[in-house]
Amino acid sequence: MVAKRPPPGPEALRRSSRALRLSLLVTLLVTLLVTLVAPATGLAQKPPPDVRSGVEAPADPSCNCPCPAANATPGAAGSASGATPARDPIARLMEAKLLFAQGNELRKLGDCARALDFYERSRAVIASVPNTLNSAFCLDQLGRDDEAYDAYERLLTDFLSELAPEDKEAVVTALSRLRPRLGALHASSNVDGQLVVDGRGRGRFPLSHDVRLQPGERVVRVVKDGWVTFEKIVVVKAGEIVTIDAKLGALAESGRLRVEDERLVGADLFVDGTLVGQLPWEGALAPGAHYYSVRRGNIGSAPREANVLLGQIAIATVEAGPLAGELHLRVQPATADLSLNGVPVGKGQWRGRLPVGKHTIEAHEPGYFSYVARPTFGATIADTMAVQLNVDENHPRWGKKQGTFWVSVFGGGAFADELGSGAEASCKTIATCPPSARDRPKGAFVGARGGYEFPLGLSVEGSLGYVNLRTRLRRDVLTSLASQGGGPQIETTYTVNDQIETAGPFVAVGVSYRLELQPWLFASGAVAIGSIFAETSDDLRVTASAGGQSLRVAVDRAGLPLSSAAPFLLPELSLGVRYSRYFADFGLGLLAVVVGGPPHETGSNTIVSQVCSQQNAGTVHCVAPSAKVVVEETTYGTYVAWLPRIALGARF
């Protein structure tokens, strides 16, 4: 066993591309030599084993007995032309070997999607143990469990005698591993038509066994020329069997469709997603619109529309070009109508290859918002597109629209110009406050919100959370104080350093309105009223300076917390995105506290450690020890703060 390699970088891909061309040239020459000398002899070298299934991926499509040409499964990924003109057996064997070698080179690069195409084309020329085993390996790697199961099972039914004992054991192990993941379809019909599931042919009636399918909604069709097509959506569950009995009625009225192009003789023709034959082709169809496409190797066409008229022959033209990798398109709900480049191609799923270039993909379903995309597909890209249509809640399909409950959690920052505190107010009256010594208030908040949204988009809501804001500033207050010795007053500067904080839980109630801009995008506005149950404090650090000396000032009850209720008004705007019932939005609110807080009952301001003497007369040591410089100031008044935030929520 070997571990998977990481995806190659751009330079590695360029080197690999040059190596691939050289390798293919060498392979072609060696293959020609081997074919001429011993056409039935296999090559000995084997590539690394499949780490998922334990099945080694052999490197040679030759077999030890005359191998019948295998028709590719109709509608399968990478199916090649099903009608290969009679050719020299040696030329066919050489073609199969070359296709197989190309697949191996791509698989070594980690590109199982493209490698699968070459393996299937190799099987279409000559089916053998190696190319069937490698197809199963790649399908397994790509997670296409039902197709991998069929391929592994085909090894036991078609090549049992040619399997090495270790390969047989590994195949049986892989089947045992895949079987519990799959459901099954037991299908019967009154005609010997073709069974098509999700656009892929799965056999012709009567079926010899149940058809393995991946869980989920599957579009089942039974098609036969001259009969009305049967179509039904079934829900497949792992480990369970779904039974259908397809009753087709003969076409009471029909027209005919003829598709021909002398440049594409022998190309596979698909009508309404089903392989019906090869060009040139003519057959009976129900009157109305049908779609068709052709493919021969890596050349083919996008689906085109043909209108069949009663009793007339519609002649269709073909516009073919190089094909991109396989596209598997899935849409939910499975009843949605799909179209490619304006051509309806059925419901729920489409699988196939489109010409290289830009294409328009559309999905429509009443009661859902339409989906339109214009991706560009390259020649080397295989892709799976899963599309989930968003519900249009205002559509009449859903009847009277019901309201919904919703909840969200949120968090963000809080920023203000000032808190309206007594300290800040003093900067405009008795104090000098250097701008460099002042911080603008800032903080954070978190909370949860819930509400009920009425059909018109209006919600009533409530929220609770926690918020804090803090700021610091330095202010200088110049005053004249009496001297302790009865002399002249002494000019004294009080320097006050404030650390102000307000924090606490909040509750609010309000209303909001949500406006859908796109199925996934919305804008909303809200207004709420509430109260912050704040605990506030001002941790004061004060010094007094005079005569070139400074001393600390003790302020009674400084820094003690004070509780209060701060009523507020909170308008808010937001923009959000949603996926299914989940949403995220980005908002900006303006918190307006409409009632200021109570004053802190600070007491006297006392200068400590004074030692007044003749030597320090006129300094701070000799001023009156007590003064009312900082007294009963509020930590917040009326203020506004910006509240940017993000919220995550869900609807119920």
Give an account of the 3D structure.
The protein is an alpha+beta fold. It has four domains: 10-181, no CATH class; 183-246, Carboxypeptidase-like, regulatory domain (Immunoglobulin-like), CATH 2.60.40; 322-395, Carboxypeptidase-like, regulatory domain (Immunoglobulin-like, Sandwich); 405-651. Helices cover 17% and strands 43% of the residues. The chain has seven helices and 37 strands. The strands form seven sheets. Strands 9, 10, 12, 13, 14, 16, 19 and 24 form an eight-stranded mixed β-sheet that branches. An eight-stranded antiparallel β-barrel has the order 25-27-28-29-30-33-34-37. A four-stranded antiparallel β-sheet has the order 3-2-5-6, with no helix packed on it. Helix 2 (89-108) runs antiparallel to helix 3 (112-125). The protein starts with 9 loop residues before the first helix and ends with a strand. Residues 1-21 and 23-86 have low confidence and may be disordered.
